[in-house]
Every structure is written in structure tokens, then in C-alpha cells.
Amino acid sequence: MRRTIADVQKMKRMGERISMLTVYDCASALIAERAGVPMLLVGDSLGMVMLGYDTTLPVTLDDMVRHAAAVTRVSREALVVGDLPFMTYATTQDAVTSARRMMQEGGVQALKLEGGAAILPQFRRLVELGVPVMGHLGLTPQSQHQIGLRVQAKRAAEARRLLEDALALETAGAFALVLELVPAPLAEAVSKRVSIPVIGIGAGAGCDGQVQVWHDLLGLFEEKTPRHARRYASIGTAMENAVRAYVADVRAGSFPSAAQSTVMDEAELAAALDAVSAKDRG
Fold this sequence. Notes:
The protein has helices at residues 5-13, 26-34, 46-49, 61-74, 92-104, 120-128, 144-147, 156-172, 184-193, 214-218, 235-252, 266-281, and strands at 18-22, 39-42, 79-83, 110-114, 133-138, 176-180, 198-201, 209-212. It is an alpha/beta fold. The mean pLDDT is 96.
């Protein structure tokens, strides 16, 4: 049975740490769900790790719907959350239109929106219409050209604003909140002051749960792992070595072998070849 937002909120009340992982296709969704991840995020980070962009900004709603649908087709148990991408919730009507597509076509059970006070009208309207919505504060990558890719809310005024935004999103009906790249003590304080689950990424261990990017967790790229991530495997290296071995076997003529080939009755082959030869002679 699929988890619900009530299940995730109960995890906080029971003191159970919540793991969330980004997934972008059916393979990652199947593996993550088999591993017991209770909440999957189809993140607009797919712009960098799946589509080759430098930022999340070029990601379209069509991109998100397509990848979300690939995840939800095979997911059976995890709560699947989908990002609304850049400028697809600039107005209340935009938010409603985008939410409808992500939930009807993408099949997600909840949405995640970046921002605080500026998007409260959109947030409230979606909740009023029965859409489970997760907030996202701190480093909001869709605003990176304005705020920079750095730790946020290190000063008192910024920290106060972040806490006020967190409380406002909770009041607006957020079922959970992501805090990205904020000081650990502040993230812990937010987690204690709101009743909804707070999921951290680069926000320390005082949050109610953690979210990581699939490719960082598994070491699929050789680039340096971000400070806030922990590499649990070097799958990228293993994949590269496997492909190198395949290329070498093809070059050497050792693949395919008899084990990967199918035989044919010699008489049937001879009859086919004779028939073609007779046709050519005629």
C-alpha cells in the first residue's frame, strides 16, 4: 500500500527519521523502493543530472511530467513528490494548471514548491484544492542567480526570515518542508518549532529527515561529491569498467559467444540459401 502524507507526518511524531531520495526514471524508482525509501522526489535537478543543463532553470513542465510518469508507473509503495519547475507557479492560475498536469499526467501524489512569503497565495490555493504541497526554503536553486549557490540564512535577519517563512508555510497547509544549505543549528531550531516534517539537504542532522540526489549518493559522476552529500558507492566507475570490457570483447571478437547466439537447422539454412541463389540465377 502506498504511503500517504499522514504516514510521513506520523514518522515525525514517532521520532522516526525520514529518508527521501531523488529519482528520475523507472530504474531508479524501482531500486529506491526496493531499498525501502519511503518518499521519492522527482526533482528538477534532473536538468543537470539527466538532461545535461548547468542549472534547473531550463527544465520545463513537460520534462517534469515525463520523468514523473516514468517513476509513478512502477512505484507502488513510496510517496512520490514532484517539483514544479521554474516559473510554472508564478501566479495562482499557473500553479493550478501546473499542479493538474503533474498529478493527472505525471501521477505524483504531492508537489514541492520553492519559496516563502512570495508564493503563499499559490501555496494556499493548491492546498484548498486538495493538493498536498511541500515547501522548500534556504538555498532555492530556481533563484540561484539572485541568491547564489551558497549556504543561506547565516545572519540573524536572514535566519529570522527563514523561520517566519517556515511557520507561514506550515500555516498555509504545507505537509512537509525541505531546508537546503542552511546552518545546522538553524535547521534544528526550525524542525523543533514546526509540527510538520523538515527534510534537510546540507542542513545538518537535526532535521526530521534527509534527502539526497541519486547521482551523488551512488557516485555516478566522477566530479567531486558536494560537501552536503555522502557517496555510498562508486557505481559510475563500475559502469565505465563494464562498458570498457564490452568494447574490448567486441573488438577482440569474443562477444557474442555461442552462449549469446542462436543456432539454426543446417538443412533449413541450406534450403534458404539455395532458393536465393536459384532466384539470382534466374
